[in-house]
Write a structure and sequence with these properties.
Alpha-Beta Plaits, globular, alpha/beta, 10 strands, 360 residues, 11 helices, 6-stranded mixed beta sheet, 2 domains, binds flavin mononucleotide, 17% strand, two-stranded antiparallel ribbon, Rossmann fold
């Protein structure tokens, strides 16, 4: 299929804090300048249950952040449901968490985001022509503080240039598989993506709380792309389907959403050192598994067992915490043991991204 045969560019995108949104916008602009018909569909609006079949000859792009060394479940499940086609090309772009240390720009890690998506599209008969990671500033303020504006700006300037070069290349009908340069480190971290999918994401979902600065404007509820926030006792409550996309915490105009670091650490400590310890003493599970199974398998089974108990306890204690937050003293302890409470931690809202923005 020659480039002139491309009639349509359709991009499905998801973005928590605007990085993937900006990448989508840059690609759309290049395509529009070339007179290609462009459609950009946000996964927060798309018919996620039954995506439309792209017209024959289209170039279909999937643009999304990387979460836990994979695409976030919203994009990942969408790709799995995406219809089979005849004669369509596809490209995959994942924005990753880039850093800058001194003069050095450090990349993020894709894990299975690219490889697995390419495999899924290949099975669905797409001709994958582009696999490209874009290392924009990391927005994951659960685990590190937000960057200074000048750092964000210099990362942006560098990555925009590279993204435009990629866009020109694939719209010229050429291919670019830049993502494959990182294959070794991506394969090495691949097992973590499985743990993140089954456990990690629930763990992070249950770390958000609304402080007493919340004035019930309900913007977080309206903006959430997966409807994961509801009001319980007049206070936002994060359900387990939260993708931790960081939109709510970075966007809240009252800076009223925090990551409850203290609560999470205390829960992990209590469950690990008391509950699981007592449980093992009671049922002697570790010895039983080691007797029955080869060492590696029994250790893995125990790890999954521990993680399962931990997530279960975290979900239950999150409910309890939500109830206790109505008491001022509990609320203050939780808020002041949250790193996000302190100004030095910074938010990531450089792009002032809103879910209803349109990249076209
Ligand atoms: C929950 C979560 C998990 C993340 N995991 C990864 C990861 O595995 N690898 C990576 O390079 N970046 C990771 N990041 C960083 C984001 O992928 C990155 O900042 C991305 O550019 C954000 O795009 P967005 O602004 O469109 O949401 C993670 C961020 C979050 C919030």
């Amino acid at each position: 299929m020659k480039n002139r045969a491309i009639k349509n560019l359709i991009i499905y995108y998801f973005s928590g804090t605007g990085n993937a949104f900006n990448v989508t916008k840059w690609i759309c602009n290049v395509a529009k300048e070339r007179g290609i018909t462009v459609t950009a569909i946000s996964l927060s609006d798309a018919n996620r249950a039954k995506p439309d079949i792209p017209p024959e000859g289209s170039l279909v792009g999937f643009v999304s952040p990387t979460h836990g060394f994979n695409f976030p479940p919203l994009m990942f499940h969408f790709l799995l449901r995406f219809p089979k086609v005849k004669n369509c090309k596809a490209f995959i772009m994942n924005t990753r968490g880039g850093f800058k240390v001194g003069k050095f720009f450090l990349p993020g890690l894709s894990g299975i985001a690219q490889i697995f998506s390419a495999l899924v599209l290949w099975v669905k008969r797409y001709k994958v022509v582009g696999m490209y990671p874009v290392d924009l500033p990391s927005n994951w303020i659960s685990v590190h503080r937000g960057f200074k504006t000048e750092v964000i700006e210099s990362i942006y300037a560098r990555r925009k240039q590279q993204t435009l070069e990629f866009a020109n290349k694939i719209l010229n009908g050429r291919r670019n598989f830049r993502a494959l340069y990182d294959i070794i480190q991506d394969v090495l971290v691949a097992p973590i993506s499985i743990l993140y999918y089954f456990f990690g994401r629930y763990f992070f979902a249950k770390s958000f709380i609304a402080s007493s600065d919340c004035n019930n404007c309900n913007l977080c509820i309206k903006e959430c792309p997966v409807d994961a926030i509801k009001l319980v006792d007049n206070r936002p409550y994060w359900k387990h389907n939260c993708e931790s996309c960081m939109h709510c915490i970075n966007f809240c105009p009252h800076r009223a959403i925090e990551i409850a670091h203290g609560f999470v650490i205390a829960t992990v400590f209590l469950v690990d050192s008391f509950l699981i310890f007592q449980l093992y003493k009671l049922i002697n599970l570790d010895q039983l598994l080691i007797d029955l199974l080869p060492l590696f398998i029994s250790k893995t089974a125990l790890f999954f067992f521990d993680s399962f108990i931990l997530i279960g306890c975290l979900i239950l204690s999150y409910r309890l915490l939500h109830y206790l937050l109505r008491f001022k003293i509990v609320e203050r302890i939780i808020v002041y043991t949250s790193l996000t409470k302190y100004k030095f931690w910074r938010r990531y809202n450089y792009t002032k991204f809103r879910m209803n923005k349109n990249p076209l």
